[in-house]
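Students often ask what a holo structure prediction actually looks like on paper. The answer is less mysterious than it sounds. You provide the chain, you provide the ligand, and the output is a string of discrete structure tokens encoding the 3D arrangement of the protein together with uridine-diphosphate-N-acetylglucosamine.
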Amino acid sequence: MTQSPDASLLTASPWWRPDPGTSLVIQGGCRLTGAYPISGAKNAVLPLMVSALVTPHLVTLHNVPSSLDVAVLANLLQRLGCVLNWSSGRGGLSLTVCADHVHPARIDRDLVVRMRASVLLLGAVLARCGEACLPLPGGDAIGSRGIDFHIAGLRAMGAEIEAGGGMIQARAPNGLHGAEIAFPHVSVGATENLMLAAVLAEGTTTIRNAAREPEIADLAQCLIAMGAAIEGLDTHVLTIHGNRPLTGAVHAVMPDRIELGTMACAAAVTGGELLLENGRRHLLGAAETLLLKAGVALEDVADGVIARRPSGRLNGIMVETQPYPGFATDLQAPVMAMLAVARGRSVITETIFEQRFRHVEELRKMGADITVDGRVASITGVDQLRGARVTATDVRAAAALVLAGLAAEGETVLDGLDHLDRGYDRMAEKLEACGAHIVRSIV
Ligand code: UD1
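The corresponding structure tokens follow.
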């Protein structure tokens, strides 16, 4: 008998609490104060979990966020033959992965379509097993999100790849070899996929125009702890000397810079003050300067970042999303929710994903004055948003609508919570502890 999707997630991640059919009910207008712990980064933990596939020795990750994407990937790893062991302590969830026997199992479409990062399995499984077969990945509905760079890079390393009928079949019967790879434009996922494959390839791989998001360096550091030789961390040229003997590793997942920026906006939009525990301002890249310009005060302290709005209304700003250290596309939606109540006009240009404005329609239902022309959104700040029933269409849109609900007058009901749960570790509970009136409920 096949297990239901939720039952199979529970097998791999006993901490996962399936909560189908619920909505988030937010009573707006509460000032947020207190300490909000920033969890391990969603975009770091996923490639880190996959990195366990490149070594037969134990890999332990600390500071693992309890999110749906983590549960889905844990289940995928289990299906590939990994043995997982979870524990929880003061530092949150820890995961130990034993991948001494990996088999290139055919992976179910129902899991892969839930999460685009599942494509990261391709490079690691192919390099480890000599073959891999994966349904085309899913994830957020925010544009075309091709995987052509991943495929071209693996082909340059000697893989034979066929993509068709919704499947990718990859083979490298004689193993992968090092290659010179140059991306036409920066891709976080392709950089990670090829780095994972290159660690097991024979010879040296150079990745030019590599992404330099902090999550890439976090992955590289874990691989280096296993014995991999990787140069060029935090630059656009990564050099990986492959086929070194690898051991296990113990690694703490970096703090989530997207949650950090999002909660700085939440503090500001509610006129509150939050200690964003474990955060550091520099992780925000260009968003730090832009938030300051908008009137959000940010201060590094010993145990995190204090975010607040010193006085009066926030100011409109001009924002353009760019690869790191530019303004993160993942902060675009939450920052837009904040700018919806700022003084004057703001302009946001989305350069990374072509359909990443689906939250605009929902924000409009709450009274926001936003128009979209192609990749450019113009926002005229209103005095007050009002509560409404809205639906999340992707992970970051979900966070934006939570922020709008916190700022609004009256009650907001947010549907589509799978999106929120995919990317955030207990966001509602953590906000409630800071004074928000926010509950999950069947409405
Ligand atoms: C990652 C993040 C996501 C973030 C994004 C950009 C994870 C799990 N997800 O997604 O939260 O919004 O980086 O910072 O880390 N592209 C191609 N061909 C490819 C690969 C990408 O055309 O083979 C395009 C995409 O369509 C997109 C752009 O490149 O327009 C950037 O995508 P990419 O950096 O790969 O994003 P992800 O790794 O999917």
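The CA atoms of residues 221 and 251 lie 8 Å apart.
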